[in-house]
Design brief:
The protein is α/β, with parallel strands linked by helices. It is 41% helix and 16% strand. The chain contains 10 helices and 8 strands. It has helices spanning 18-34, 51-58, 84-90, 100-105, 110-122, 135-139, 143-154, 182-200, 217-224, 241-249, and strands at 6-11, 40-45, 63-67, 94-97, 126-131, 164-168, 208-212, 231-234. Helix 1 (18-34) runs parallel beside helix 2 and helix 7 packs parallel to helix 8. The longest helix has 19 residues, at 182-200. The two termini are 12 Å apart. The model has no long low-confidence stretch (mean pLDDT 97). It binds 2-phosphoglycolic acid. The site of 2-phosphoglycolic acid has 13 residues, from strand 8.
Length: 252
């Protein structure tokens, strides 16, 4: 929808170290100070241990900070897990939930993603809820059906355009260098927009819908121009300031 400002989010996944996180963040900050004005908001999502130092670096800047997961309970006996309120306390405004790597590595189903999004909302975080079909789903012609089921089951009551971002990430496109055609991306994004309208009423028209999966500078201009694409969730290319910045600069 015209009028939705783009968001370009960097999902660093389980990469880097303290030095790399500091250097990459500083490089991006320098560009926000000296580079041309972007038509996109920027968000970076480093691994948990680097959130607090990164938040300190980002203080007073226009780059937002997010985490890559949280627990579905507000607090309690969950060894090794992180509460949404802790992320907020650490300086995060966003949290990625239901990424396909979490769904695959940790067996996270949409019901759990929904519970996590609810607790994230309760903590005052914006939930970036990820959906997307596998290659087998796609080959079977089930893309829209699978994405619809994930959307229906993953979004909690109380979702609005202020606390929800949806990321469409075809599993087969993540980290593979393969991307769907612009027409395929458009059809899925249009379907998600329709579902959001049915579910959230007028708010559904304002929710950002990001595309993710092998976004890089060479394909960003085409992908970011697709109707109903309101930005990108970027994995590999977000680890290089040049590439991440070029993707953000491709947003109009
Ligand atoms: P990729 O990852 O850009 O490396 O394909 C995207 C994602 O998993 O969010």
């Amino acid at each position: 929808m015209a009028g939705i400002r783009a968001l370009v989010a960097g999902n660093w996944k389980m990469n880097g170290n303290r030095q790399m996180a500091a250097t990459l963040t500083e490089d991006l900050l320098r560009r926000t100070r000296t580079g041309p004005e972007l038509a996109a908001d920027l968000l970076i999502c480093p691994p948990f241990p680097y959130l607090i130092p990164t938040a300190q670096q980002l203080t007073g800047s226009r780059i937002a900070l997010g985490a890559q997961d949280c627990h579905a309970d507000a607090s309690g006996a969950h060894t090794g897990d992180i509460a949404a309120a802790m992320l907020k306390d650490a300086g995060c405004s966003h949290v990625i939930l239901g990424h396909s790597e979490r769904r695959a590595d940790h067996g996270e189903a949409s019901g759990l993603v929904c519970a996590k999004a609810k607790v994230a909302h309760g903590a005052g975080l914006i939930a970036i809820v990820c959906v997307g079909e596998t290659e087998a789903d796609r080959d079977a012609g089930n893309t829209l059906k699978i994405v619809e089921k994930q959307i229906v089951e993953s979004l909690p009551e109380g979702s609005t355009s202020s606390n929800l971002v949806v990321a469409y990430e075809p599993v087969w496109a993540i980290g593979t260098g393969k991307t769907p055609t612009a027409a395929d991306v458009e059809s899925v994004h249009r379907h998600i927009r329709k579902l959001l309208g049915g579910r959230l009423g007028g708010e559904g028209a304002k929710v950002r819908i990001l595309y993710g999966g092998s976004v890089k500078p060479s394909n960003a201009t085409e992908l970011m121009a697709v109707p109903e694409v309101n930005g990108a969730l970027v994995g590999g290319a977000s680890l290089k300031a040049d590439d991440f910045w070029a993707i953000a600069a491709a947003c109009r």
